[in-house]
Protein backbone atom coordinates (compact mmCIF):
# COMPACT_ATOMS: atom_id res chain seq x y z
CA UNK A 1 0.00 0.00 0.00
CA UNK A 2 1.27 3.48 -0.87
CA UNK A 3 2.44 5.34 2.29
CA UNK A 4 0.61 8.47 1.15
CA UNK A 5 -2.70 6.61 1.39
CA UNK A 6 -1.85 5.82 5.01
CA UNK A 7 -0.65 9.30 5.96
CA UNK A 8 -3.53 11.19 4.35
CA UNK A 9 -6.23 9.98 6.80
CA UNK A 10 -3.87 10.64 9.72
CA UNK A 11 -3.16 14.18 8.53
CA UNK A 12 -6.87 14.75 8.08
CA UNK A 13 -7.56 13.61 11.65
CA UNK A 14 -4.85 15.96 12.97
CA UNK A 15 -6.25 18.93 11.04
CA UNK A 16 -9.78 18.23 12.30
CA UNK A 17 -8.54 17.85 15.88
CA UNK A 18 -6.65 21.15 15.72
CA UNK A 19 -9.70 22.90 14.24
CA UNK A 20 -11.95 21.60 17.03
CA UNK A 21 -9.40 22.47 19.73
CA UNK A 22 -8.93 26.03 18.49
CA UNK A 23 -12.68 26.64 18.37
CA UNK A 24 -13.22 25.13 21.81
CA UNK A 25 -10.48 27.29 23.30
CA UNK A 26 -11.98 30.38 21.68
CA UNK A 27 -15.51 29.66 22.95
CA UNK A 28 -16.33 32.06 25.82
CA UNK A 29 -18.03 29.36 27.82
CA UNK A 30 -15.05 27.02 27.63
CA UNK A 31 -12.19 29.28 28.63
CA UNK A 32 -11.38 26.85 31.41
CA UNK A 33 -10.06 24.50 28.73
CA UNK A 34 -7.07 26.74 28.03
CA UNK A 35 -3.62 25.60 29.16
CA UNK A 36 -1.26 28.22 30.56
CA UNK A 37 2.35 27.13 30.07
CA UNK A 38 3.94 30.41 31.24
CA UNK A 39 6.18 30.43 34.31
CA UNK A 40 4.06 31.22 37.35
CA UNK A 41 0.81 30.92 35.32
CA UNK A 42 0.96 34.62 34.55
CA UNK A 43 -1.97 34.40 32.11
CA UNK A 44 -4.34 32.55 34.46
CA UNK A 45 -6.40 33.79 37.37
CA UNK A 46 -4.90 32.89 40.72
CA UNK A 47 -6.43 30.77 43.45
CA UNK A 48 -7.09 33.90 45.51
CA UNK A 49 -9.20 35.39 42.71
CA UNK A 50 -11.06 32.08 42.31
CA UNK A 51 -11.92 32.15 46.03
CA UNK A 52 -13.15 35.73 45.81
CA UNK A 53 -15.39 34.88 42.86
CA UNK A 54 -16.77 31.79 44.61
CA UNK A 55 -17.77 33.85 47.65
CA UNK A 56 -19.72 36.43 45.65
CA UNK A 57 -23.37 36.49 46.74
CA UNK A 58 -24.56 39.41 44.62
CA UNK A 59 -23.95 40.49 41.05
CA UNK A 60 -21.19 43.00 40.29
CA UNK A 61 -21.19 44.87 36.98
CA UNK A 62 -17.85 45.73 35.40
CA UNK A 63 -17.75 48.42 32.72
CA UNK A 64 -14.60 48.78 30.69
CA UNK A 65 -14.44 52.18 29.02
CA UNK A 66 -12.00 51.78 26.13
CA UNK A 67 -11.70 54.37 23.34
CA UNK A 68 -10.72 51.88 20.66
CA UNK A 69 -11.81 54.20 17.87
CA UNK A 70 -9.42 56.93 19.11
CA UNK A 71 -6.34 54.67 19.55
CA UNK A 72 -5.42 54.25 15.91
CA UNK A 73 -1.83 55.48 16.30
CA UNK A 74 -1.17 53.74 19.64
CA UNK A 75 -0.47 50.06 18.86
CA UNK A 76 1.18 49.42 22.24
CA UNK A 77 -1.89 50.66 24.10
CA UNK A 78 -4.10 48.52 21.87
CA UNK A 79 -2.17 45.41 22.85
CA UNK A 80 -2.48 46.28 26.55
CA UNK A 81 -6.21 47.04 26.18
CA UNK A 82 -6.73 43.63 24.60
CA UNK A 83 -4.92 42.05 27.54
CA UNK A 84 -7.23 43.94 29.94
CA UNK A 85 -10.35 42.84 28.06
CA UNK A 86 -9.27 39.19 27.95
CA UNK A 87 -8.57 39.26 31.69
CA UNK A 88 -12.00 40.73 32.43
CA UNK A 89 -13.64 38.11 30.19
CA UNK A 90 -11.84 35.48 32.26
CA UNK A 91 -13.37 36.97 35.42
CA UNK A 92 -16.82 36.86 33.84
CA UNK A 93 -16.42 33.27 32.64
CA UNK A 94 -15.31 32.00 36.07
CA UNK A 95 -17.78 33.92 38.21
CA UNK A 96 -20.82 31.70 37.67
CA UNK A 97 -22.82 34.65 36.41
CA UNK A 98 -21.95 36.95 39.34
CA UNK A 99 -19.71 39.17 37.17
CA UNK A 100 -21.31 40.96 34.24
CA UNK A 101 -18.88 42.61 31.83
CA UNK A 102 -19.75 45.46 29.47
CA UNK A 103 -17.25 47.08 27.11
CA UNK A 104 -18.04 50.67 26.12
CA UNK A 105 -16.40 52.91 23.52
CA UNK A 106 -16.88 56.46 24.86
CA UNK A 107 -16.81 58.42 21.60
CA UNK A 108 -16.47 62.22 21.87
CA UNK A 109 -19.61 64.02 23.08
CA UNK A 110 -21.55 60.77 23.40
CA UNK A 111 -23.69 59.54 26.30
CA UNK A 112 -21.04 56.90 26.93
CA UNK A 113 -18.42 59.62 27.44
CA UNK A 114 -20.80 61.41 29.83
CA UNK A 115 -21.08 58.16 31.79
CA UNK A 116 -17.31 57.81 31.94
CA UNK A 117 -17.01 61.36 33.28
CA UNK A 118 -19.76 60.65 35.82
CA UNK A 119 -17.81 57.68 37.14
CA UNK A 120 -14.76 59.92 37.49
CA UNK A 121 -12.61 58.21 34.85
CA UNK A 122 -9.57 60.02 33.48
CA UNK A 123 -9.45 60.95 29.79
CA UNK A 124 -6.14 61.60 28.01
CA UNK A 125 -6.01 64.10 25.15
CA UNK A 126 -5.05 62.59 21.78
CA UNK A 127 -5.29 63.60 18.11
CA UNK A 128 -4.00 67.08 18.75
CA UNK A 129 -6.13 67.62 21.83
CA UNK A 130 -9.45 67.25 20.02
CA UNK A 131 -10.35 63.85 21.51
CA UNK A 132 -10.19 62.27 24.94
CA UNK A 133 -9.00 58.67 25.13
CA UNK A 134 -10.32 56.48 27.96
CA UNK A 135 -9.09 53.19 29.35
CA UNK A 136 -10.78 53.01 32.72
CA UNK A 137 -12.77 50.47 34.69
CA UNK A 138 -15.87 51.02 36.81
CA UNK A 139 -17.41 48.37 39.09
CA UNK A 140 -20.94 48.65 40.50
CA UNK A 141 -22.66 46.45 43.07
CA UNK A 142 -26.38 45.67 43.26
CA UNK A 143 -26.88 48.17 46.09
CA UNK A 144 -25.48 51.01 43.96
CA UNK A 145 -21.98 51.27 45.46
CA UNK A 146 -19.25 51.78 42.88
CA UNK A 147 -15.47 51.85 42.62
CA UNK A 148 -13.30 52.75 39.68
CA UNK A 149 -9.77 52.74 38.29
CA UNK A 150 -9.43 56.13 36.53
CA UNK A 151 -6.95 54.92 33.90
CA UNK A 152 -5.48 51.44 33.54
CA UNK A 153 -1.79 52.00 32.93
CA UNK A 154 0.45 49.62 31.03
CA UNK A 155 3.18 50.24 33.63
CA UNK A 156 0.97 48.41 36.14
CA UNK A 157 0.21 45.42 33.91
CA UNK A 158 1.89 43.11 36.41
CA UNK A 159 -0.62 44.29 39.02
CA UNK A 160 -3.69 44.07 36.78
CA UNK A 161 -5.25 41.01 38.42
CA UNK A 162 -4.68 42.38 41.91
CA UNK A 163 -6.23 45.77 41.08
CA UNK A 164 -9.35 44.13 39.63
CA UNK A 165 -9.72 41.56 42.39
CA UNK A 166 -9.22 44.17 45.09
CA UNK A 167 -12.05 46.21 43.57
CA UNK A 168 -14.39 43.20 43.48
CA UNK A 169 -13.41 42.09 47.00
CA UNK A 170 -14.01 45.59 48.40
CA UNK A 171 -17.47 45.83 46.81
CA UNK A 172 -18.40 42.35 48.06
CA UNK A 173 -17.10 43.09 51.57
CA UNK A 174 -17.98 46.68 52.45
CA UNK A 175 -16.91 46.22 56.07
CA UNK A 176 -13.16 46.77 56.02
CA UNK A 177 -10.72 45.41 58.57
CA UNK A 178 -10.04 48.16 61.11
CA UNK A 179 -6.33 48.84 61.54
CA UNK A 180 -5.14 50.97 64.46
CA UNK A 181 -1.95 52.83 63.50
CA UNK A 182 0.35 53.85 66.33
CA UNK A 183 3.46 55.45 64.86
CA UNK A 184 6.22 57.80 65.96
CA UNK A 185 7.06 58.41 62.28
CA UNK A 186 4.94 60.72 60.05
CA UNK A 187 3.49 57.93 57.89
CA UNK A 188 0.20 59.79 57.52
CA UNK A 189 1.98 63.06 56.69
CA UNK A 190 2.57 66.06 58.91
CA UNK A 191 5.62 67.70 60.52
CA UNK A 192 8.91 65.83 60.30
CA UNK A 193 12.13 66.07 62.36
CA UNK A 194 13.82 67.46 59.24
CA UNK A 195 11.22 70.22 58.74
CA UNK A 196 8.86 70.62 61.71
CA UNK A 197 7.21 73.75 60.25
CA UNK A 198 6.18 72.33 56.85
CA UNK A 199 3.89 69.27 56.75
CA UNK A 200 5.08 66.43 54.54
CA UNK A 201 3.05 64.33 52.12
CA UNK A 202 1.71 61.01 53.46
CA UNK A 203 3.93 58.04 52.68
CA UNK A 204 2.69 55.79 49.88
CA UNK A 205 2.31 52.94 52.38
CA UNK A 206 -0.41 55.08 53.97
CA UNK A 207 -2.24 55.27 50.63
CA UNK A 208 -1.99 51.50 50.21
CA UNK A 209 -3.33 50.90 53.72
CA UNK A 210 -6.31 53.22 53.23
CA UNK A 211 -7.25 51.47 50.00
CA UNK A 212 -7.46 48.12 51.77
CA UNK A 213 -8.36 48.89 55.40
CA UNK A 214 -10.22 51.24 57.69
CA UNK A 215 -7.17 52.95 59.17
CA UNK A 216 -7.52 54.81 62.48
CA UNK A 217 -4.50 56.76 63.77
CA UNK A 218 -4.09 56.21 67.51
CA UNK A 219 -2.72 58.88 69.80
CA UNK A 220 -0.90 58.14 73.05
CA UNK A 221 -3.95 56.67 74.76
CA UNK A 222 -3.88 54.21 77.61
CA UNK A 223 -6.55 51.93 76.16
CA UNK A 224 -6.88 50.87 72.51
CA UNK A 225 -10.50 50.53 71.39
CA UNK A 226 -12.04 47.07 71.30
CA UNK A 227 -13.17 47.47 67.67
CA UNK A 228 -9.57 47.62 66.40
CA UNK A 229 -8.99 44.35 64.52
CA UNK A 230 -5.22 44.71 64.03
CA UNK A 231 -2.74 47.10 65.62
CA UNK A 232 0.20 48.39 63.56
CA UNK A 233 3.01 49.86 65.66
CA UNK A 234 5.87 51.71 63.93
CA UNK A 235 9.18 52.58 65.64
CA UNK A 236 7.99 52.00 69.24
CA UNK A 237 11.25 53.27 70.75
CA UNK A 238 10.00 56.85 70.35
CA UNK A 239 6.55 56.16 71.87
CA UNK A 240 5.64 57.09 75.44
CA UNK A 241 5.29 54.50 78.20
CA UNK A 242 1.56 55.24 78.21
CA UNK A 243 1.25 54.26 74.56
CA UNK A 244 3.41 51.16 75.04
CA UNK A 245 1.26 50.11 77.98
CA UNK A 246 -1.80 50.35 75.72
CA UNK A 247 -0.04 48.06 73.21
CA UNK A 248 0.90 45.62 75.99
CA UNK A 249 -2.67 45.33 77.29
CA UNK A 250 -4.18 45.17 73.80
CA UNK A 251 -2.02 42.15 72.91
CA UNK A 252 -2.67 40.42 76.26
CA UNK A 253 -6.44 40.85 75.71
CA UNK A 254 -6.11 38.83 72.51
CA UNK A 255 -5.50 41.67 70.07
CA UNK A 256 -3.28 41.04 67.06
CA UNK A 257 -0.37 43.32 66.25
CA UNK A 258 2.39 44.01 63.72
CA UNK A 259 5.37 45.86 65.20
CA UNK A 260 8.14 47.52 63.17
CA UNK A 261 10.98 48.01 65.67
CA UNK A 262 14.25 49.43 64.40
CA UNK A 263 17.70 49.59 66.07
CA UNK A 264 18.63 52.37 63.63
CA UNK A 265 16.01 54.59 62.01
CA UNK A 266 17.54 56.14 58.91
CA UNK A 267 14.53 58.46 58.68
CA UNK A 268 15.22 59.89 62.13
CA UNK A 269 18.98 59.99 61.54
CA UNK A 270 18.58 62.45 58.65
CA UNK A 271 17.65 65.20 61.11
CA UNK A 272 20.04 64.07 63.87
CA UNK A 273 22.36 61.02 63.83
CA UNK A 274 21.84 60.59 67.55
CA UNK A 275 18.06 60.41 67.12
CA UNK A 276 18.47 57.54 64.67
CA UNK A 277 19.83 55.20 67.35
CA UNK A 278 17.50 54.99 70.34
CA UNK A 279 18.87 53.58 73.56
CA UNK A 280 17.46 50.65 75.47
CA UNK A 281 14.06 51.42 76.96
CA UNK A 282 10.51 50.27 77.57
CA UNK A 283 10.04 49.18 73.95
CA UNK A 284 12.80 46.58 74.43
CA UNK A 285 11.12 45.38 77.63
CA UNK A 286 7.87 44.98 75.71
CA UNK A 287 9.55 42.81 73.06
CA UNK A 288 11.25 40.71 75.73
CA UNK A 289 7.89 40.16 77.44
CA UNK A 290 6.79 38.57 74.17
CA UNK A 291 9.89 36.35 74.13
CA UNK A 292 12.10 38.17 71.62
CA UNK A 293 14.96 40.65 71.88
CA UNK A 294 16.97 42.81 69.53
CA UNK A 295 20.54 43.81 70.29
CA UNK A 296 20.63 47.64 70.63
CA UNK A 297 22.84 49.52 68.22
CA UNK A 298 23.60 46.50 66.04
CA UNK A 299 22.63 46.44 62.36
CA UNK A 300 22.69 43.45 60.03
CA UNK A 301 24.93 43.54 56.95
CA UNK A 302 24.57 40.81 54.31
CA UNK A 303 27.05 40.57 51.44
CA UNK A 304 24.96 38.06 49.47
CA UNK A 305 21.83 40.23 49.59
CA UNK A 306 23.44 43.69 49.65
CA UNK A 307 22.38 46.40 47.22
CA UNK A 308 24.80 48.30 45.00
CA UNK A 309 24.91 52.03 45.64
CA UNK A 310 26.80 54.96 44.14
CA UNK A 311 28.35 57.64 46.36
CA UNK A 312 30.89 60.40 46.05
CA UNK A 313 34.29 59.80 47.64
CA UNK A 314 36.23 63.01 47.26
CA UNK A 315 36.36 63.86 43.56
CA UNK A 316 35.27 60.46 42.29
CA UNK A 317 32.04 58.48 42.29
CA UNK A 318 32.23 54.90 43.49
CA UNK A 319 29.71 52.09 43.06
CA UNK A 320 29.92 49.37 45.71
CA UNK A 321 27.78 46.89 47.60
CA UNK A 322 26.34 48.61 50.68
CA UNK A 323 26.05 45.96 53.38
CA UNK A 324 23.20 47.44 55.51
CA UNK A 325 20.83 47.83 52.52
CA UNK A 326 19.64 44.40 51.50
CA UNK A 327 17.21 42.82 49.07
CA UNK A 328 15.66 39.54 50.19
CA UNK A 329 14.65 36.90 47.64
CA UNK A 330 14.12 33.17 47.30
CA UNK A 331 15.18 31.17 50.39
CA UNK A 332 15.62 34.31 52.51
CA UNK A 333 11.81 34.63 52.51
CA UNK A 334 9.85 31.93 54.36
CA UNK A 335 7.93 30.02 51.65
CA UNK A 336 5.97 27.99 54.21
CA UNK A 337 4.07 31.04 55.52
CA UNK A 338 1.01 32.20 53.59
CA UNK A 339 1.90 35.88 54.07
CA UNK A 340 5.35 35.52 52.49
CA UNK A 341 5.06 32.40 50.33
CA UNK A 342 4.83 34.19 46.99
CA UNK A 343 6.60 37.49 47.64
CA UNK A 344 9.31 38.14 45.09
CA UNK A 345 11.67 40.70 46.66
CA UNK A 346 11.80 42.89 49.76
CA UNK A 347 14.08 45.86 50.42
CA UNK A 348 15.25 46.52 53.99
CA UNK A 349 17.60 49.18 55.34
CA UNK A 350 19.73 49.04 58.50
CA UNK A 351 17.58 46.36 60.08
CA UNK A 352 18.22 44.57 63.35
CA UNK A 353 18.43 40.92 64.32
CA UNK A 354 15.73 39.17 66.36
CA UNK A 355 16.69 36.55 68.95
CA UNK A 356 14.45 34.44 71.13
CA UNK A 357 14.95 35.05 74.84
CA UNK A 358 16.07 32.20 77.07
CA UNK A 359 12.87 32.22 79.12
CA UNK A 360 10.52 32.72 76.17
CA UNK A 361 7.18 30.93 76.34
CA UNK A 362 6.16 31.98 72.86
CA UNK A 363 7.03 30.17 69.67
CA UNK A 364 9.10 32.18 67.20
CA UNK A 365 8.59 31.48 63.48
CA UNK A 366 11.06 33.35 61.20
CA UNK A 367 9.49 35.09 58.21
CA UNK A 368 12.52 36.93 56.81
CA UNK A 369 16.17 35.97 57.27
CA UNK A 370 19.62 36.83 55.99
CA UNK A 371 22.07 34.52 54.29
CA UNK A 372 25.02 33.07 56.19
CA UNK A 373 27.22 35.61 54.38
CA UNK A 374 26.18 38.23 56.95
CA UNK A 375 27.40 39.85 60.13
CA UNK A 376 26.32 42.38 62.77
CA UNK A 377 27.63 45.91 62.20
CA UNK A 378 28.06 48.69 64.73
CA UNK A 379 25.27 51.19 64.05
CA UNK A 380 27.54 54.13 64.87
CA UNK A 381 29.68 53.34 61.79
CA UNK A 382 26.56 53.75 59.66
CA UNK A 383 24.70 56.65 61.21
CA UNK A 384 27.75 58.95 61.40
CA UNK A 385 29.06 59.48 57.83
CA UNK A 386 28.94 55.90 56.51
CA UNK A 387 31.75 54.73 54.25
CA UNK A 388 30.43 51.83 52.09
CA UNK A 389 33.88 50.85 50.83
CA UNK A 390 35.36 50.73 54.33
CA UNK A 391 32.41 48.65 55.58
CA UNK A 392 32.99 46.24 52.73
CA UNK A 393 36.72 45.96 53.37
CA UNK A 394 36.09 45.08 57.04
CA UNK A 395 33.38 42.54 56.29
CA UNK A 396 33.82 39.11 57.87
CA UNK A 397 30.93 36.65 57.41
CA UNK A 398 29.64 35.15 60.63
CA UNK A 399 28.27 31.98 59.05
CA UNK A 400 24.98 32.68 60.87
CA UNK A 401 21.58 33.44 59.35
CA UNK A 402 19.97 36.33 61.26
CA UNK A 403 16.19 36.63 61.68
CA UNK A 404 14.79 39.95 60.44
CA UNK A 405 11.06 39.34 60.94
CA UNK A 406 9.21 36.68 62.95
CA UNK A 407 5.76 35.58 64.03
CA UNK A 408 5.29 35.12 67.80
CA UNK A 409 2.56 32.93 69.24
CA UNK A 410 1.95 31.50 72.70
CA UNK A 411 1.39 32.71 76.28
CA UNK A 412 3.07 35.91 77.40
CA UNK A 413 3.32 38.13 80.47
CA UNK A 414 2.98 41.88 80.76
CA UNK A 415 5.95 44.22 80.40
CA UNK A 416 4.38 46.30 83.21
CA UNK A 417 4.20 43.95 86.23
CA UNK A 418 3.64 46.86 88.61
CA UNK A 419 0.64 48.14 86.68
CA UNK A 420 0.15 51.01 84.28
CA UNK A 421 2.59 53.94 84.25
CA UNK A 422 1.68 56.34 87.02
CA UNK A 423 -0.45 53.70 88.77
CA UNK A 424 -3.69 54.77 87.05
CA UNK A 425 -5.84 51.82 85.95
CA UNK A 426 -8.32 53.93 84.02
CA UNK A 427 -7.94 54.85 80.39
CA UNK A 428 -8.21 58.41 79.15
CA UNK A 429 -11.82 58.81 78.05
CA UNK A 430 -12.38 55.08 78.52
CA UNK A 431 -14.13 52.94 81.11
CA UNK A 432 -11.86 51.54 83.85
CA UNK A 433 -9.77 48.75 82.37
CA UNK A 434 -8.60 45.66 84.20
CA UNK A 435 -4.83 45.37 84.32
CA UNK A 436 -3.71 42.04 82.85
CA UNK A 437 -0.53 40.43 84.10
CA UNK A 438 -0.85 37.42 81.76
CA UNK A 439 -2.33 36.92 78.32
CA UNK A 440 -5.90 35.61 78.26
CA UNK A 441 -5.00 33.35 75.34
CA UNK A 442 -2.05 32.83 73.04
CA UNK A 443 -0.80 36.11 71.63
CA UNK A 444 -0.45 36.59 67.86
CA UNK A 445 2.19 39.18 67.03
CA UNK A 446 4.56 39.78 64.13
CA UNK A 447 7.78 41.70 64.82
CA UNK A 448 9.80 43.21 61.97
CA UNK A 449 13.26 44.52 62.88
CA UNK A 450 13.08 47.44 60.45
CA UNK A 451 10.88 50.51 60.01
CA UNK A 452 12.76 52.11 57.11
CA UNK A 453 11.30 49.53 54.74
CA UNK A 454 8.08 51.58 54.92
CA UNK A 455 9.75 54.68 53.44
CA UNK A 456 8.88 55.41 49.80
CA UNK A 457 12.49 55.48 48.60
CA UNK A 458 13.10 51.86 49.54
CA UNK A 459 10.18 50.24 47.71
CA UNK A 460 8.25 52.50 45.33
CA UNK A 461 8.65 55.02 42.55
CA UNK A 462 5.96 57.72 42.76
CA UNK A 463 4.78 59.37 39.55
CA UNK A 464 2.35 62.22 39.05
CA UNK A 465 -0.39 61.41 36.54
CA UNK A 466 -2.70 64.39 35.95
CA UNK A 467 -2.57 65.39 39.60
CA UNK A 468 -2.84 61.86 40.95
CA UNK A 469 0.05 60.03 42.63
CA UNK A 470 0.67 56.68 40.93
CA UNK A 471 2.69 54.02 42.76
CA UNK A 472 5.08 51.87 40.72
CA UNK A 473 6.53 49.38 43.22
CA UNK A 474 10.16 48.34 42.92
CA UNK A 475 9.78 45.79 45.72
CA UNK A 476 7.00 43.96 47.57
CA UNK A 477 7.34 45.90 50.84
CA UNK A 478 3.75 47.19 50.81
CA UNK A 479 2.48 43.74 49.81
CA UNK A 480 4.29 42.25 52.79
CA UNK A 481 2.68 44.72 55.21
CA UNK A 482 -0.79 44.31 53.72
CA UNK A 483 -0.44 40.52 53.67
CA UNK A 484 0.31 40.55 57.40
CA UNK A 485 -2.63 42.82 58.20
CA UNK A 486 -4.90 40.80 55.87
CA UNK A 487 -4.11 37.56 57.62
CA UNK A 488 -4.15 38.92 61.16
CA UNK A 489 -7.43 40.66 60.32
CA UNK A 490 -8.97 37.43 59.09
CA UNK A 491 -8.77 37.82 55.28
CA UNK A 492 -6.24 36.11 53.02
CA UNK A 493 -7.91 35.80 49.60
CA UNK A 494 -5.95 38.68 48.12
CA UNK A 495 -2.56 37.47 49.31
CA UNK A 496 -1.85 35.01 46.49
CA UNK A 497 -2.88 37.57 43.88
CA UNK A 498 -0.78 40.40 45.24
CA UNK A 499 2.30 38.23 45.45
CA UNK A 500 2.35 37.61 41.69
CA UNK A 501 3.17 41.25 41.03
CA UNK A 502 6.84 41.14 40.10
CA UNK A 503 8.24 39.34 37.08
CA UNK A 504 11.83 40.47 37.74
CA UNK A 505 14.38 37.67 37.41
CA UNK A 506 17.88 38.76 38.44
CA UNK A 507 21.08 37.09 37.21
CA UNK A 508 21.91 35.58 40.60
CA UNK A 509 25.09 33.82 39.48
CA UNK A 510 26.48 36.98 37.86
CA UNK A 511 25.57 38.99 40.96
CA UNK A 512 27.26 36.49 43.28
CA UNK A 513 30.49 36.46 41.22
CA UNK A 514 30.49 40.27 41.10
CA UNK A 515 29.95 40.57 44.86
CA UNK A 516 32.79 38.20 45.67
CA UNK A 517 35.17 39.99 43.31
CA UNK A 518 34.01 43.36 44.65
CA UNK A 519 34.79 42.22 48.19
CA UNK A 520 38.35 41.23 47.22
CA UNK A 521 38.85 44.42 45.21
CA UNK A 522 37.69 46.71 48.03
CA UNK A 523 39.86 44.87 50.56
CA UNK A 524 42.91 45.43 48.35
CA UNK A 525 41.95 49.05 47.79
CA UNK A 526 41.52 49.65 51.50
CA UNK A 527 44.91 48.06 52.10
CA UNK A 528 46.48 50.48 49.63
CA UNK A 529 44.82 53.47 51.29
CA UNK A 530 46.02 52.26 54.71
CA UNK A 531 49.62 51.91 53.46
CA UNK A 532 49.43 55.36 51.89
CA UNK A 533 48.31 56.86 55.19
CA UNK A 534 51.13 55.13 57.05
CA UNK A 535 53.73 56.42 54.59
CA UNK A 536 52.38 59.95 54.74
CA UNK A 537 52.58 59.86 58.54
CA UNK A 538 56.17 58.62 58.38
CA UNK A 539 57.08 61.34 55.89
CA UNK A 540 55.48 63.97 58.13
CA UNK A 541 57.30 62.61 61.19
CA UNK A 542 60.63 62.73 59.36
CA UNK A 543 59.89 66.26 58.19
CA UNK A 544 59.06 67.35 61.73
CA UNK A 545 62.37 65.92 63.05
CA UNK A 546 64.45 68.03 60.65
CA UNK A 547 66.17 71.15 61.88
CA UNK A 548 64.89 73.02 58.81
CA UNK A 549 61.33 71.61 58.42
CA UNK A 550 60.40 74.42 55.98
CA UNK A 551 62.92 73.21 53.39
CA UNK A 552 61.27 71.67 50.29
CA UNK A 553 64.17 69.27 49.73
CA UNK A 554 63.81 65.65 50.88
CA UNK A 555 66.27 64.02 53.21
CA UNK A 556 67.85 60.68 52.23
CA UNK A 557 65.56 58.97 54.72
CA UNK A 558 62.49 60.61 53.18
CA UNK A 559 63.58 59.71 49.67
CA UNK A 560 64.12 56.10 50.72
CA UNK A 561 60.71 55.96 52.41
CA UNK A 562 59.03 57.56 49.38
CA UNK A 563 60.70 55.12 46.94
CA UNK A 564 59.58 52.20 49.07
CA UNK A 565 56.03 53.50 49.13
CA UNK A 566 55.94 54.04 45.35
CA UNK A 567 57.13 50.49 44.77
CA UNK A 568 54.50 49.18 47.18
CA UNK A 569 51.83 51.28 45.48
CA UNK A 570 52.72 49.87 42.05
CA UNK A 571 52.61 46.35 43.47
CA UNK A 572 49.17 46.79 45.04
CA UNK A 573 47.79 48.48 41.89
CA UNK A 574 48.99 45.48 39.90
CA UNK A 575 47.11 43.23 42.33
CA UNK A 576 43.99 45.36 41.89
CA UNK A 577 44.22 45.00 38.12
CA UNK A 578 44.57 41.24 38.53
CA UNK A 579 41.39 41.12 40.63
CA UNK A 580 39.48 43.16 38.05
CA UNK A 581 40.81 40.97 35.26
CA UNK A 582 39.70 37.82 37.07
CA UNK A 583 36.25 39.35 37.59
CA UNK A 584 35.90 40.11 33.86
CA UNK A 585 37.25 36.68 32.95
CA UNK A 586 34.75 34.86 35.20
CA UNK A 587 31.82 36.86 33.83
CA UNK A 588 32.97 36.42 30.22
CA UNK A 589 33.33 32.68 30.82
CA UNK A 590 29.76 32.52 32.16
CA UNK A 591 28.48 34.55 29.22
CA UNK A 592 30.27 32.26 26.79
CA UNK A 593 28.69 29.17 28.36
CA UNK A 594 25.22 30.71 28.27
CA UNK A 595 25.64 31.74 24.64
CA UNK A 596 26.86 28.26 23.76
CA UNK A 597 23.88 26.62 25.47
CA UNK A 598 21.32 28.95 23.86
CA UNK A 599 22.89 29.37 20.43
CA UNK A 600 24.85 26.16 19.93
CA UNK A 601 23.88 23.33 22.25
CA UNK A 602 20.09 23.49 21.90
CA UNK A 603 20.12 23.62 18.04
CA UNK A 604 22.77 20.87 18.07
CA UNK A 605 20.59 18.62 20.24
CA UNK A 606 17.59 19.27 18.01
CA UNK A 607 19.66 18.47 14.93
CA UNK A 608 20.92 15.24 16.50
CA UNK A 609 17.37 14.29 17.46
CA UNK A 610 16.16 14.94 13.91
CA UNK A 611 19.06 12.96 12.44
CA UNK A 612 18.43 10.08 14.82
CA UNK A 613 14.75 10.05 13.91
CA UNK A 614 15.64 9.99 10.21
CA UNK A 615 18.05 7.08 10.72
CA UNK A 616 15.43 5.11 12.67
CA UNK A 617 12.86 5.67 9.92
CA UNK A 618 15.36 4.55 7.26
CA UNK A 619 16.06 1.33 9.16
CA UNK A 620 12.35 0.61 9.50
CA UNK A 621 11.61 1.31 5.82
CA UNK A 622 10.43 -1.97 4.13
CA UNK A 623 12.59 -3.40 1.36
CA UNK A 624 10.78 -3.54 -2.02
CA UNK A 625 11.13 -6.29 -4.59
CA UNK A 626 14.46 -6.40 -6.26
CA UNK A 627 16.13 -4.70 -3.28
CA UNK A 628 14.90 -1.29 -4.39
Can you give a write-up of this model?
The protein has helices spanning 3-26, 47-54, 75-94, 111-119, 160-172, 204-212, 241-252, 266-271, 282-289, 380-383, 388-393, 477-488, 495-498, 508-545, 556-620; strands spanning 60-66, 99-104, 124-126, 131-133, 135-141, 146-149, 178-183, 214-217, 230-234, 256-260, 292-294, 298-302, 306-313, 316-328, 346-349, 354-356, 363-369, 374-378, 403-410, 443-448, 460-465, 468-473. The protein is of the alpha/beta class. The protein folds into four domains: 1-35; 47-170, Glutaredoxin (3-Layer(aba) Sandwich), CATH 3.40.30; 175-294 and 350-369 and 400-506, 3-Layer(aba) Sandwich (Rossmann fold); 509-546 and 554-620.
- Which overall shape is indicated by the principal axes computed on the Cα atoms? globular
Major beta sheet summary: 7 strands, mixed
Share in helix: 25-40%
Strand order of the largest sheet: 8-7-9-10-20-19-17
Radius of gyration: 32 Å
Distance between the termini: 16 Å
Indicate the CATH architecture of the largest domain. 3-Layer(aba) Sandwich
Number of helices: 15
Look at the structure and give the mean pLDDT.
81
Which strand-content bin applies to the residues?
Answer: 15-25%
At the third CATH level, what is the topology name of the largest domain? Rossmann fold
Low-confidence stretches: 3-7, 28-32, 425-429, 501-505
CATH C-level of the largest domain: Alpha Beta
Amino acid sequence: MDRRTILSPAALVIVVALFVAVNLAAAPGLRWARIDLSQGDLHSLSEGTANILKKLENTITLKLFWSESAAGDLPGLKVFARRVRETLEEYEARSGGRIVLTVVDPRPFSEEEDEAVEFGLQGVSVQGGTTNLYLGLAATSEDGRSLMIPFLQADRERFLEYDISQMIHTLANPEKVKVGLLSSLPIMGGPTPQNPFQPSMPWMISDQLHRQFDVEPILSERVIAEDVDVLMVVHPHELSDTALYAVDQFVLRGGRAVVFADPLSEFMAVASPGAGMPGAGTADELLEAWGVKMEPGKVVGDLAASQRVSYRDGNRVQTVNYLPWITLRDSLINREEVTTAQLDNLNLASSGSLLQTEDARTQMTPLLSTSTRSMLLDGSTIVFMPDPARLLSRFSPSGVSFTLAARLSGPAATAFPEGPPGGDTEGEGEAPAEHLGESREEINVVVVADSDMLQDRFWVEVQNFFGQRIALPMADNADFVINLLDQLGGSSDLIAIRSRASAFRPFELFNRVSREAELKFRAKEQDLVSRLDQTERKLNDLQAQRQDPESPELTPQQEEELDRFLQEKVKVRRELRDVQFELRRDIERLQAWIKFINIGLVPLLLSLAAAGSWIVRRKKKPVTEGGK
